Amino acid sequence: MELYGYPLKAKFNQPRPPPPKVLPATSTTAASYKNRIPYHPESFSMPWMPNSYYKAAALNPTLAPLTENFPGAPPSKIVPFISERPNGVFTRHTLDDWHRSNMTNYKESETTRHNAERLRADLTRTIKDVYQQAKRTQGESTKNLGERVNDMEYWKSELCIELDAMIRETNSLADMQKRLERALADTEGPFQVAHKCLLNREKRMGIDLVNDDVEKQLITEIKIIRSCRERLQQCLDTVNAQLMCNKEARQELEKDLADKQMGHHIDSKCYQLKGTSRGIHYFKGVERIDATVSVPETWARFTDNNIFRSQSARAASAKLRASTESLLMGTADEMWRQFSKVNDAFTSRITEIANAKSKIQTHLAKTRQEIFQIETKIQVIQKTIRDKEVQLKVAQTRLDERTRRPNVELCRDAAQIRLVQEVNEINETLRNLHQCLRASEDMLQMLVRSKGVLEHDLVVKNNSLFIDQERCMGMRKSYPSTVQILGYV
């Protein structure tokens, strides 16, 4: 006797014994199985019965001799034909044969019933074991499906958490990308301003066209802006590449999550299927189809690799965002400090030019005043010369008239001597006056030349002051603030 609960080898699994050639020849038995439909393996509407039973029941009973039906039974004695019986009456078997035949039928019937009882007991136990085994097998499959569903729910939650984190990181990096693009675009304005300042300062004239501190600071500012633009462009290229990596990792997560959701839906449906569920059918040969492409280890490793890849991309993205933020702050501070230096140089240079202009104006005013005074003096000298010339004419006219005195009247008297002295004195005075006049005129020319130089220098200073103060500083007042450079607006 085998233990209860373990699968037993049913009797019908053993080689079937040959069916007996003789069944109870009863009309009720033959009639009850006459119209039975044979068992079809695809139908569960009929209980299982051996095919040999139906085949044996379909045979018609015969009245063959017992020796033929039961090979093991001793041969019966054939009663000799007695022709001496009156009226043709004779017997074929003896009474012992009749009793022996009945006993044989009884024993055969009892043996058949005993075998049937054993078969029924075996079938009952087998059916019970089959149901228990099927329930246990189905329970194990359901349990495995439940564990599988739990595993998929766990990995789904991990994928959802990582996908949300990746989406947030990608959005943050995209915002950083926009800030970089705006910062890179905002550097174009300061670069153009510095370049235009250099071009405008090339329009200075004369001595003001010098390589001063303003020009040096402007050249330094252009170099710094170019360096900042190159670094921002390199950082922007790196951010774009990192965004592509983030998008690829996100696509892998979304694809894996979609597969997990589909697989979870299918396994949940399979987990809820029962024998009473609707939509269950036969699918012949489906157990021989192996469409699997992974095992639990590779399945879990695939999702774990996707999550690890996403985490690595997120870490690299966060590090890149921090370095980008530092770069934006550094470049903005560097450009702003240089901008302040250039403005300070402009302010200092404008102050110097304004002071020079003021001094030039002062000197120009003094020169003009001196020119006016010299011109006045020249006029006075010229008037004095004219007066002296009149006095000279008078003295010479007197001398000339006195030469016409007759004879002894041509006396060298005191008047004659004084007139001669007067003429000599007047001539000396005139020579001195003409020298003073020439000196005054020369000084006037020098003053006029100095005035011209001062006026030209004043024009140069006005032009330089206009370029530095109005054009250059006017443009630099529109320089973007630090907030705009950092890309916050």
From TrEMBL:
One GO term of the biological process aspect: cilium movement involved in cell motility
Gene it is expressed from: Tekt3
GO cellular component, one term: sperm flagellum
The protein's name in its UniProt record: Tektin
InterPro entries reported for this sequence: Tektin-like, Tektins
Organism: Picathartes gymnocephalus (White-necked rockfowl)
Job of this protein: Microtubule inner protein (MIP) part of the dynein-decorated doublet microtubules (DMTs) in cilia and flagellar axoneme. Forms filamentous polymers in the walls of ciliary and flagellar microtubules. Required for normal sperm mobility.
Main localization (coarse): cytoplasm
Family membership: Belongs to the tektin family.
Subunit annotation: Microtubule inner protein component of sperm flagellar doublet microtubules. Interacts with TEKT1, TEKT2, TEKT4 and TEKT5. Interacts with CCDC38.
Localisation per UniProt entry: Cytoplasm, Cytoskeleton, Cilium axoneme; Cytoplasm, Cytoskeleton, Flagellum axoneme; Cytoplasmic vesicle, Secretory vesicle, Acrosome outer membrane
Recorded topology in the membrane: Peripheral membrane protein
UniProt KW keywords: Cell projection, Cilium, Cytoplasm, Cytoplasmic vesicle, Cytoskeleton, Flagellum, Membrane, Ubl conjugation
